[in-house]
Design goal:
Two copies of one chain form a homodimer.
Chain A: E1 9-14, H1 19-31, E2 36-40, H2 48-54, H3 58-62, E3 65-67, H4 70-73, E4 77-83, E5 94-96, H5 97-108, E6 112-117, H6 126-130, E7 134-137, H7 149-164, H8 180-196, H9 205-219, H10 223-240
Parallel strand pairs in A: 1-2, 1-6, 2-3, 4-6, 4-7, 5-7
Helix pairs in contact in A: 1-2, 1-7, 5-7, 8-10
Chain lengths: 241, 241
């Protein structure tokens, strides 16, 4: 999936009360590669709180477009998805966010799509909901479903970027894997050491090495780790003599 | 998956600088049904900023346990997963969050597991990372991977609750679906109305109704909607006469 489809996913925040939430939402968007922020009748914008909470995403605030009405914000949008936490507010049935993402990404391949979030306290109004073609909800604890606005935006952007498979985790940290020769050298060394100390049961010489093979197969071993383990064994051998 | 496995997933915040982030993390946890919050050497706690940001999750703050060291916080933990945004900081390879969740939930079926998050600026130290059995990362924009601490906690808790399938979206909004009889009544009415106005091509009488059947099959129809559509047709008929 091309990352440029993320450029066609707009986040629309309608009638946001707290400018800090606009900034935090911009930050959440940028961490997931989204850039198109649209604001409908924000109570305060621009605002120093928005800028402070945006941290390194001030460029999204600078490029954000402000509209008087939701209709205006959706004029070029082919598929709009409204977020609604409360089933009783819904004009049409809501789907779980994850279920709706494939359709959203398919539409974003050649058209602009929008995720629409309402006011922090009251959510989307009935009129706003009826302007959205789909409704989505984030499955949450029914005893306390109160996600912060920017937290809801973060989850939505994360689901979209994850489904679009545009960002990968660089594993890092791993050295090169031990070879068969490294491993056999280690097991031979362990066995010799165990025989020499009398730890190995001469009746069942295979059991100890079988267990070590299983254990190190589970953990995986890097070349560097084999080297350190054999150094540790050599030092014990030398000390004993 | 039983929701009580969520009670065995602890969130550990180590050396958090800003108490507001502790409160926001508690709120994020509670929205996803997690309750076990552990703090390692927080700079300020308890703190009014933590309480304000926790909103309705003050109970999690009240029950949070504070430890001097990460070792102390993990004493009863069978599987610990450290979160690390930067590949270069990692002592061992990191996996994507979503890939590690099944193992985490399997372990949580009969033991305590922990997700460990480091300081806002510096992340987990090398010593902290080496105390975690697994490392995970949230795939993010390499140009700006700076998720807010509470946003990272929100995504992690969301992934766990979603994989555990403990919360469902109540679709809401939908009335009862129209029956076959309702639909045939509507199509007959549309056809009669179209014939009466001369809109229907007498050579191809089927095409219009075929298109209407396809269109309404895509949209789905509720009984109430059929009633309103037929009322609209009746009013046109009456007006015309």
């Amino acid at each position: 999936m091309a990352s440029d489809c993320l450029a066609r996913v707009a986040i629309v925040l309608s009638r946001t009360s707290h400018p800090g939430n606009i900034g935090a939402a911009a930050r959440a968007m940028k961490t997931m590669g989204l850039t198109d922020l649209r604001l409908v009748a924000p109570r305060h914008f621009p605002d120093p709180d928005a800028t402070a909470m945006a941290a390194g995403a001030a460029d999204l605030l600078a490029n954000a477009r402000v509209f008087d009405t939701l209709e205006g914000a959706l004029r070029d949008v082919a598929l709009s998805v409204g977020f609604s936490a409360r089933a009783r507010d819904r004009s049409h049935p809501a789907e779980a966010l994850r279920a709706i993402v494939p359709e959203l990404l398919a539409a974003a391949s050649d058209a602009t799509v929008a995720l629409v979030f309402g006011n922090e306290t009251s959510g989307l109004s009935n009129e706003e909901l009826s302007r959205c073609q789909r409704l989505a909800a984030i499955p949450a604890n029914p005893q306390y479903p109160s996600l912060n606005l920017a937290a809801a935006v973060q989850i939505a952007c994360y689901e979209i970027a994850t489904a679009a498979e545009v960002f990968a985790v660089v594993p890092g940290g791993a050295g090169s894997a031990a070879t068969g020769e490294d491993l056999e050298g280690l097991f031979a060394h362990l066995e010799a050491s165990a025989r020499e100390t009398g730890f190995l049961d001469p009746e069942k010489p295979g059991r100890f090495i079988e267990m070590m093979r299983r254990l190190f197969a589970r953990s995986g071993l890097e070349r560097e780790e084999v080297k350190v383990l054999r150094g540790f064994l050599r030092a014990r051998d030398a000390k004993r003599r």
